[in-house]
Design brief:
Order of helices and strands: EHEHHEHEEHEEHEHHEHEHHH
Largest sheet: 8 strands, parallel, barrel
Helix content: 40-55%
Number of domains: 2
Shape: globular
CATH superfamily of the largest domain: Divalent-metal-dependent TIM barrel enzymes
Number of strands: 10
Number of helices: 12
Radius of gyration: 21 Å
Strand order of the largest sheet: 1-2-3-4-6-8-9-10
CATH architecture of the largest domain: Alpha-Beta Barrel
Oligomer: single chain
CATH class of the largest domain: Alpha Beta
CATH topology of the largest domain: TIM Barrel
Length: about 350
């Protein structure tokens, strides 16, 4: 446990203010221009924005290097005007026809090369924007049919791809974001443990960390605060995506704390007790707009999530540690449970 409290910078991605489409229905709102999203981020008290490569440069596969530079430079101007920092750029490796059967683990060598080339373009965009990290969400790395790929070969292919990116940019730092399912049937790097072990296999483990998302841990049947603590113990927790999840369903990205306030409390507690943020780590709020929200209030989930974080942080810091220590010493965990619930509800103990 650190003797420092956490310090927090907050970010979100342009996709977190969306048009309300889902797998079962079309958009229900009009698109909002990126410049307006950036302005809204500043007004709500956020410090930065996250990017997929094509959030900054539309369809980079069809753009020359000079076109990519020009478009990314315009995005950076908007960020600078609003006083925002780009946190990361992630190559979108799950939309293209070449990645139907995976990106780095595709059975077709030409498609694997496409994924690496696309990732290098994302590195270029990241440098133009001035972002700190590349995030790898290994979305389609895995199988729909287990017999279609070798599990050990997939791991080695991912390792080799990461090594090539580390060679491409000697200052590159990569965050692996694990997810146990969706969109493939069987993900190959599915938990925090897998992501951290993957980093240790690369040629420069000091430049490979992980990003833990609340919902992804829950979808693996795990507690996100435990995953965060595991990564912190390895000094590999370089970013978090906070949201909430109503059980083992699809990735819901509910507003932070909206489903389980106790889970939210413990995530913030683990971060704060570890002094999270003193090395520049970010808190991302990866939350989706409810499809029912009207156009003019389609960002409330972000401001609400930020307010919930601040509320929970106050609860973490106002916890009476002497009562906590006494009940732990007495091993009276039933009473500790009651004390925590009273504290969260604002009921005198």
């Amino acid at each position: 446990m650190s003797d420092k409290q956490g310090v927090y910078r907050f970010s979100f991605g342009p996709w977190n203010i969306d048009e309300g489409a889902d797998p079962f229905g079309p958009p229900v709102r009009q698109p909002i221009a990126f410049a307006d999203k950036a302005r809204k981020a500043r007004e709500m008290g956020f410090h930065g924005l996250q990017f997929h490569d094509d959030d900054a440069v539309e369809d980079p596969d069809r753009k020359s290097a000079s076109q990519i530079e020009n478009e990314a430079t315009e995005v950076r101007k908007i960020l600078d005007q609003e006083g925002l920092v780009p946190e990361f750029v992630a190559p979108r490796l799950w939309f293209a026809p070449e990645t139907i059967d995976g990106a780095y683990t595709n059975n077709d060598p030409a498609c694997r090369q496409y994924a690496i080339d696309r990732s290098k373009k994302a590195v270029d965009i990241m440098r133009i924007l001035g972002a700190e990290y590349m995030v790898l969400w290994l979305a389609r790395e895995g199988t729909y049919i287990r017999e279609s790929k070798s599990p050990n070969e997939q791991i080695l292919l991912i390792r080799d791809a990461i090594n090539e990116l580390l060679d491409y940019d000697k200052d590159l730092r990569i965050l692996i974001e694990p997810k146990p399912n969706e969109p493939v049937d069987s993900a190959i790097v599915s938990t925090a443990g897998h992501a951290i072990a993957m980093g240790y296999m690369t040629k420069d483990p000091a430049r490979v960390g992980c990003l833990i998302e609340t919902a992804h841990s829950m979808l693996a049947g795990l507690d996100p605060s435990d995953d965060m603590g595991f990564a912190l113990a390895h000094e590999k927790l370089w970013s978090v995506h906070l949201n909430d999840q109503g059980g083992l369903k699809f990735d819901q990205d509910k507003s932070f704390g909206s489903y389980n306030l106790r889970h939210a409390f413990n995530q913030v507690r683990v971060l704060d007790e570890a002094g999270y943020g003193h090395n520049g780590e970010w808190v991302g709020l990866d939350v989706k707009t409810m499809r029912t929200q009207k156009q003019e209030v389609s960002w409330k989930h972000l401001s609400n999530s930020l307010k919930t974080f601040q509320f929970v942080l106050e609860k973490v810091r106002s916890l009476d540690k002497s009562i906590q220590r006494q009940l732990i010493q007495e091993r009276d965990y039933e009473e500790l449970d009651r004390y925590i619930l009273n504290h969260l509800m604002g009921v005198p103990y």
